[in-house]
TrEMBL record:
This is Transcriptional regulator, CutR. One of its GO terms (molecular function) is transcription cis-regulatory region binding. The gene is cutR. The keyword DNA-binding applies. Residues 122-216 bind DNA.
Length: 216
């Protein structure tokens, strides 16, 4: 996710709320910084304030649409008039939320847009005796509850979504951590060790040398 909001406290509050739901979140406080991040990273959803300094939110939205990717835009604004909402959607925004708003509603809309940003996955992912319920944020293995941290949950979800394919450590860093993570860190390996320990025996996560990880 990318949160673009010039009100620093609000931007940080939105980012922290989404991180609690296991999203990897970057933050930009003006339109120019947002365009820089969009030029480097591929985001599933951009939570975009319309009234931004330096580069207006409308121009950021146009740039996202013109890029032709699968990024979805949730536009935020203090303007509640119907014509303002229509104008925002006409720019190519996928959804519109007026301020003030409840964070629980924002996250529900983000979840909905995420499902549209890539091929839809079932609400409950199952493989090799593991059951992951994204909505309830619960994991079970062979009917045993498994308590996971947010990052462990996010990593396991990516492995299950891959449906048996290999997922590289680089892809896991991109999808489960934010832009501040050191690309040379061993955090993926450490997280994988903890995840394997919590899932128990027999082991289900395999390491594919030089390629990544998979759940057969």
């Amino acid at each position: 996710m990318l949160v673009v909001e010039d009100e620093t406290m609000l931007a940080d509050a939105i980012a922290e709320w989404l991180r609690r739901e296991s999203f990897a979140v970057d933050v930009a406080y003006d339109g120019d910084a947002a365009l820089e991040r969009l030029g480097v990273n591929e985001y599933a959803v951009v939570v975009l304030d319309r009234d931004l300094p330096v580069v207006h939110g409308d121009d950021v939205c146009r740039a996202i649409v013109d890029a032709g990717g699968e990024t979805r835009v949730l536009m935020l604004t203090a303007a509640a008039a119907v014509r303002e909402r229509v104008a925002g959607l006409a720019l190519g925004a996928d959804d519109y939320l007026t301020k003030p708003f409840a964070l629980v509603e924002l996250s529900a809309r983000v979840h909905a847009l995420t499902r549209r940003a890539r091929p839809a996955a079932p609400p409950t992912l199952r493989r090799a005796g593991i059951q992951l319920d994204a909505a309830r944020h619960e994991v079970r293995r062979d009917d045993r509850h498994v308590a996971l941290s947010r990052k462990e949950f996010a990593v396991l979800a990516e492995l299950l979504r891959a449906d048996g394919a290999v997922v590289s450590a680089e892809d896991l860093l991109e999808r489960a951590w934010d832009e501040h993570i050191d690309p040379f860190t061993n955090v993926v390996r450490v997280t994988m060790m903890k995840l394997r320990r919590k899932l128990g025996d027999p082991p289900v996560i395999e390491t594919v040398p030089g390629a990544g990880y998979q759940i057969r």
